[in-house]
Amino acid sequence: MDFLKKTLVIWVLLAALLYAAIPNSQTSLSHIGGKSEKAEHSKATEHDRFFDNHNRAWQLFLLFLLLGAVIAIGYILIRQYNRQLKEQVQRQLDEIRQKDELLLQRQRMAAMGEMLSMISHQWRQPLGAITTTIMGIRIKLESGRFNLNSPTEQKIFLSYLDRKLNSVIEYVNTLSHTTDDFRNFFNPNKEKTVTNLSIPIENALEIIGQSLSKNGIKVIKEYKADPQLQMYDNEVTQVILNIFKNSEDNFTEKKLHERQIHIVTFARGKQYVILICDNGGGVPEEILPKIFEPYFSTKGKLGTGLGLYMSQLIMENHHSGTLKAYNRHNGVCFELLFNPGQDA
Description:
Layout: H1 2-30, H2 39-142, H3 151-186, E1 193-196, H4 199-214, E2 217-223, E3 228-231, H5 233-254, E4 259-268, E5 271-278, H6 307-319, E6 322-327, E7 332-338
Parallel strand pairs: 2-4
Antiparallel strand pairs: 1-3, 4-5, 5-7, 6-7
């Protein structure tokens, strides 16, 4: 509004000066000729000119005021329009953020089903080992393998029992560790943490590693750079898990024999990259541009079509980075790029 006030004041002053200048200039020019024989006729003519110039000045004065009013009204309308436009854009941005949060929650719920199957798989082996250990102890006791009435046999049995109980404790710790891994994964980060670039990779492998091994998938890790970066490590773990799971499903679907996932971390100037490649035959070129679109899936009813879409949102909106995919060496590569100097 200060700009508007200054503009109006200047406009009025210019109009007033114009109004004062035109009649005076015209009147002063009429005296240059000096006295002549037509003095009285000139006085009458000058009187008429004075009123003509006076009317002209008023017309220009009113024109300036009209232009000033038009500019002022236009300025006010533009400010009002800009304010309404900003409010509309902000509302739309808020709606988009809410939709993204809902999509992220939906994708997490879909991932939870897959996680539960992974938990059951990871628990199966230690639970089976615990059962085998307890049954072994029972068989030893029922078969009379140890004579508990003999002090020597008692010591041997107690030593055997101690070893087996330690094994059971290790298996239980494995179960507890698995539970912690999944609990931490589903607990959203409130603040970014300073974490090594390799940590979310290792966290993802802790969750899905046994499943990959069971399906004959060899994982090769090559950490050429492992800087400490600010990130939401659980979210990056989720992105990497989505990529691992897609590779695993692809290997299973195509029934490939030699299965390999190669993970490389490296620096690219001031940026850092996690590159995850497999040898699963790649993605058809006509599909590749669509894999990051919401609800696009090649798994039919088994897929939600949100995994890669949300993964890209996590990288772009939460980490000022990028996630892209391309075919290379009879497989597909996913590139997670981090920009440490830019806060999301």
